[in-house]
Specification:
Length: 206
């Protein structure tokens, strides 16, 4: 019987480098929704949390917010994405998207201070999900006093847990706004007085 049906093994068994699995190896790279509030509460939700609705409906609440809090960002991303968190002090932090605790739609979310090494009084003003740190992509930063800076995205591919300085700020200034762009993109910036300036991303200094 052995001689009749014996065949060579079609595949080879090999040792891996260390045999250790990381979290990311067992977490599906699924699409998710990220919600961030002004007071720094963040949560991750499944896309089917929000269904397509007809015209004339009142919509769905994003969730329970703390007193005097409001929603600041609502983004679609994938679980394996790197999420860049930019603070008002010009510091950027990074964490994988799946590190954000998954919550129900009605939950308030998790304080960012439980995920990031924020200093006292430091606030996150922009979040950027990144799937790939492409060399032709840039981050455009704008401060409260009107300073603008363009930085190559790939410079942020490795960030320490305590964060790194993304932009040097003058005394009294704050980082207010960060967006992903390419050199061919145009960006429109509006003031509180209703004035709008349109400029190509490549015109901003590095």
């Amino acid at each position: 019987m052995k001689n009749k049906f014996s065949n060579p093994r079609p595949s080879m068994l090999e040792d891996t480098d260390d045999g250790q699995l990381e979290d990311i190896d067992v977490i599906p790279n699924e699409e998710m929704i990220l919600a961030l509030s002004e007071k720094g509460y963040v949560k991750r939700m499944k896309p089917n949390t929000f269904n397509l609705q007809n015209r004339g409906t009142i919509g769905k609440s994003v969730g329970k917010l703390k007193v005097n809090d409001s929603m600041s960002d609502f983004l679609v991303f994938r679980a394996h994405d790197h999420v860049l968190y930019f603070s008002d002090k010009g510091t950027v932090y990074s964490a994988r998207a799946y590190k954000i605790p998954e919550c129900s739609r009605t939950a308030a979310g998790t304080p960012l201070v439980q995920i990031l090494s924020l200093s006292d009084g430091e606030r996150i003003t922009s979040i950027i999900p990144v799937s790939e740190f492409a060399e032709d992509q840039f981050l455009l930063m704008l401060t409260m006093q009107g300073y603008i800076k363009r930085v190559s995205l790939n410079l942020f591919s490795s960030i320490r847990s305590i964060g790194i300085i993304a932009i040097q700020l003058v005394h009294g200034d704050e980082l207010k706004w960060v967006r992903l762009c390419s050199n061919d993109d145009f960006v429109a910036m509006a003031s509180h007085n209703g004035m709008v300036m349109l400029s190509q991303c490549s015109k901003a200094s590095c």
